[in-house]
Specification:
It is built from 13 helices and 7 strands. By secondary structure, the chain is of the alpha+beta class. Among the domains are: 147 residues, CorA soluble domain-like (Beta Polymerase, domain 2); 65 residues, Methane Monooxygenase Hydroxylase, Chain G, domain 1. A hairpin with a 2-residue loop joins strand 5 and strand 6.
Length: 337
Amino acid sequence: MDARVTASAAADAAKEPGVVDAGVYVGGQRVASTSIDEAGSWSKKPGHVVWIGLFEPSYDLLRRVQAQFGLHDLAIEDAENAHQHPKLEQYGEALFVVARTAQIVGGRIAFGETHLFVGRGYVVSVRHGASTSYANIRHRCESRPKALSHGEDYILYAILDFIVDNYMPVLETIHAEVDAIEDDVFSSTAGTTNVHRLYTLRRDLLRLRNVAVPLIEVCHRLERAEAPIDPAMHPLFRDVSDHLVRVEEEIDALREVLAFAFEASLMRGQAQQNAITRKLAAWAAILAVPTAIAGIYGMNFKNMPELEWQYGYPLAILLMLIAAALPYFIFKWKNWL
């Protein structure tokens, strides 16, 4: 595909707020760019597929798209609210797919949402929130006209595959941080900050799992005969579901490592507290006898023979030193000090 045609099409589509691109394809080749108000007529032509990409569109724009392709009211309401769980809904021969996207933003996982309307002769993608632009998907598909000739089914696969592939960089980033934290748990500098981060990462991974795992069932439904999908596309959706299974396994493995690291960090903190307690107890025992001796002779009773004795003071000091030294060496031998 000529890069000048693609760039011109993107520029034309960008003139309307919320519309990223809108192209018409025949046999895997882009033949025209279209406006929203003309998209419906293009989709009704035999062999033509309209692919429209929207980003956080207004309610009026969604209603105009609905009018062009006869989209279901419930699907439009879901696309407008943008707080849906991953799912697949079928309205006659049309499909409505909700998928969640994920990116690392500021050290945390930020989630977005993509709604896909797929029917005979059209695909409409609606993006909300954190998500990589789908321009790369369009360019990749346009560079493979043979694959793109499968029409709306291949476009649906390409978008879902792109969303799932983008889970892996997120997991790789978290994996690197988990390894660093795990190494730091037993270091002398480990503290409460790591415990808080461990908890945050586990919670983010759980949210990512809740985002990714439901897509497995979506892909399984797209593989079955009940969905209006070309049987030739079934292996591709099966491949996406296999990737999702690997994502699920990676998430579970990371959460298990974080759980062990969390427990180890708590145990390390308890061990440090026990060591401090032992030291305090040991020093208390060491000072107990000298303190008792000093307390006794500090009472200054009149009838205390040692007070008038020439060697009374040196003897008291010697007794206190012996009483302190003996338990000190015992505790040192037992590694309490």
